[in-house]
Write a structure and sequence with these properties.
Blueprint (H helix, E strand, L loop, with lengths): L2 H10 L1 H9 L1 E6 L20 E2 L3 E2 L2 H10 L3 E6 L4 H10 L10 E6 L12 H6 L2 H7 L3 E6 L2 E3 L3 H10 L4 E9 H4 L5 E4 L5 E5 L7 E2 L2 E15 H12 L8 H9 L5 E5 L11 E3 L3 H11 L26 E3 L1 E2 L2 E2 L1 E3 L2 E2 L4 E3 L2 E3 L2 E2 L4 E2 L4 E3 L2 E2 L4 E2 L4 E3 L1 E3 L4 E2 L4 E2 L3 H6 L3 E2 L5 E3 L12
Parallel strand pairs: 1-4, 1-6, 4-5, 8-13, 15-20, 18-21, 19-22, 20-23, 21-24, 22-25, 23-26, 24-27, 25-28, 26-29, 27-30, 28-32
Antiparallel strand pairs: 2-3, 6-12, 7-14, 8-12, 9-10, 9-12, 11-12, 16-17, 31-32
Helix pairs in contact: 2-7
C-alpha cells in the first residue's frame, strides 16, 4: 500500500484520530476583556459572557474539545475572571486527572516574568512548565470567545499527514467583515501559508474570489517542541508584542512548514457557522439568530451537545389566560426558573430566574439571569444585564433619545444596553 492510500486509510480510522487527540493538550485563551462590548464586560471576561439563553461563551470551545475527544484542557484566565472561574468549577470540574483527563484553570501567575500576560504567545510561554509536565505531542491553542461547532480531530489529522510544524485554522469571510478585525492568510496551491497579515485595513482577496478573504480563527496546532522553540525565541526579542498573529506566525512562514486548515460545514462543505460576538450589535444578532424558526446554529443537535452548568431550578412558568393579561412567548427561548406573569414575549431570550410582570411587552430582547421587569413596561431590541430591576412603566428601546437621556448605551444599529449601574442599582454581579 502506498503512502497516500495509507494516509487515507488512517484518516478514515476513528482509532487514528483518537490517538492524535489523546496526544494533544488544548489551551483555551480566555483572558480577554472584550472592550467593544462596553459595560457588558465591566465585571466579567468576555468568555464568561452569557449566550443562547443558557450558556456562557467559554462552553463552546470547551464542548468542541470534549466532543472532539480532547480531554486535556487548560483555560488561561486573566481579566476579571471570578465569574469565569466559578462557572468552570461548577460545570467543568468533574474530569478525573487519574484517567488522563482534566480541565485546569491557568491564571496569570508570573512564572517567567514580573508581568501579567502580555499577549497570546506570552500567555502560553508563561505556562511552558505546565505543558512540559503533561508531555503532549501536539499543543492546540484555541480562542475562548467565539461561537461555533468544530471537530478538532479533522484538523489534527491534517496537521500530522502534512508533516506540518504549525497549522492555522481559517475560514472564508467577506473582505469588509475582515478589514481591521481578523488576521488574514494567503496560501499556495498546497495550502501552505505564504503570508499572514494581522488585521489589515485592506485584506488580500482569495484568488478568483474578489469579495472574500481567508481569515484566521485564532486556533492553532503546534508540534510541542517546535512551539517551545518559537516561544523562547520570541521571549528574547525585545521588539515583539508576544502575539501569535502579529509576531510568531509572520516570523516562521518562510522557514517552516505552516499550513492553513480551512474550516467548512461538515454537511454542506460550505461556509460554516462561526460568530465573533465581540460587539454589542454582533452579540445581539447572534442571539437573535437562535430564536428564528430555522436557526443556522443548531443547539438541539444531540450528536454534538453543548455542555454547561445550570442551577437546579424549577421549570419555566407562564401565568394568566385573560384577554388583556396572558403570559405568552412566541419565537422565544425561556430558561428554567423564569416566570412570565401576564406578559408577552416575542423573539426574545430569557436566561434563568427572570421575572416579567403583567401587561409588559418585550420584543427582540435578551434578558440575562435574574432580571426582573415590572408591570406595563415596553422593551424593544434591548440587552438587560444580569440582575437588573426594571421599574413599573419603563420604556426601553422605544425612544432612543430618551434612552440616551436615561444613561443607557444605544448602538449604531439601535440595540439598547441597560446595566445595573445605569439604573443606579448595586453592581458587581457577573
Amino acid at each position: 500500500m502506498d503512502d497516500t492510500k495509507s494516509n487515507e486509510k488512517m484518516n478514515e480510522s476513528p482509532r487514528y484520530v483518537s490517538r492524535l487527540t489523546k496526544d494533544t493538550l488544548a489551551l483555551i485563551l480566555a483572558g480577554g476583556r472584550g472592550s467593544r462590548l462596553y459595560e457588558l464586560t465591566d465585571w466579567r471576561a468576555k468568555p464568561a459572557l452569557y449566550f443562547g439563553g443558557k450558556y456562557r461563551i467559554i462552553d463552546f470551545p470547551l464542548s468542541n474539545c470534549i466532543n472532539s475527544g480532547i480531554r486535556r484542557v487548560g483555560v488561561l484566565t486573566q481579566y476579571k475572571s471570578h465569574s469565569l472561574l466559578r462557572h468552570l468549577m461548577q460545570g467543568w470540574s468533574h474530569f478525573k486527572k487519574e484517567l488522563g483527563e482534566f480541565i485546569e484553570i491557568l491564571p496569570a501567575s508570573q512564572r517567567y516574568s514580573d508581568d501579567w500576560y502580555q499577549g497570546t504567545a506570552d500567555a502560553v510561554y508563561q505556562n511552558m512548565d505546565i505543558i512540559r509536565a503533561e508531555n503532549p505531542k501536539y499543543v492546540m491553542i484555541l480562542s475562548g470567545d467565539h461561537i461555533y461547532q468544530m471537530d478538532y480531530g479533522d484538523m489534527l489529522a491534517q496537521h500530522v499527514d502534512r508533516g506540518a510544524d504549525m497549522t492555522v485554522s481559517c475560514l472564508e469571510v467577506p473582505i469588509e467583515e475582515a478589514a481591521g478585525a481578523f488576521g488574514v492568510i494567503s496560501v499556495d496551491e498546497e495550502g501552505r501559508v505564504i503570508a499572514f497579515d494581522e488585521k489589515p485595513e485592506h485584506p488580500t482577496p482569495i484568488p478568483g474570489e474578489s469579495g472574500l478573504t481567508l481569515a484566521s480563527m485564532g486556533n492553532y496546532i503546534f508540534n510541542t517542541e517546535f512551539l517551545f522553540e518559537q516561544l523562547l525565541k520570541d521571549a528574547e526579542n525585545p521588539d515583539s508584542n508576544s502575539d501569535f498573529g502579529a509576531d510568531i506566525i509572520p516570523s516562521i512562514i518562510k522557514s517552516h512548514k505552516v499550513y492553513a486548515s480551512p474550516f467548512r460545514d461538515p454537511r454542506t462543505k460550505g461556509r460554516p457557522y462561526w460568530r465573533d460576538v465581540g460587539t454589542l450589535d454582533s452579540y445581539w444578532e447572534a442571539n437573535m439568530e437562535l430564536v428564528s424558526p430555522q436557526p443556522a446554529f443548531n443547539l438541539y443537535d444531540a450528536s454534538w451537545p453543548i455542555w454547561t452548568y445550570q442551577s437546579q431550578l424549577p421549570s419555566a412558568k407562564f401565568l394568566f389566560d385573560d384577554d388583556d393579561r396572558r403570559g405568552i412567548a412566541v419565537d422565544s427561548t425561556v430558561s428554567s426558573g423564569c416566570i412570565v406573569s401576564g406578559a408577552k414575549l416575542r423573539k426574545s431570550l430569557l436566561f434563568s430566574n427572570v421575572r416579567v410582570d403583567s401587561y409588559t411587552d418585550i420584543e427582540e430582547s435578551i434578558l440575562l439571569p435574574s432580571v426582573t421587569v415590572g408591570q406595563r413596561c415596553k422593551i424593544r431590541k434591548a440587552i438587560l444585564d444580569r440582575g437588573c430591576h426594571i421599574p413599573d412603566g419603563s420604556e426601553i428601546g422605544v425612544d432612543h433619545e430618551q434612552d440616551k437621556a436615561n444613561g443607557y448605551r444605544v448602538t449604531a444599529k439601535g440595540v439598547v444596553l441597560v446595566t445595573r449601574g445605569m439604573l443606579g442599582q448595586p453592581e458587581g454581579f457577573a
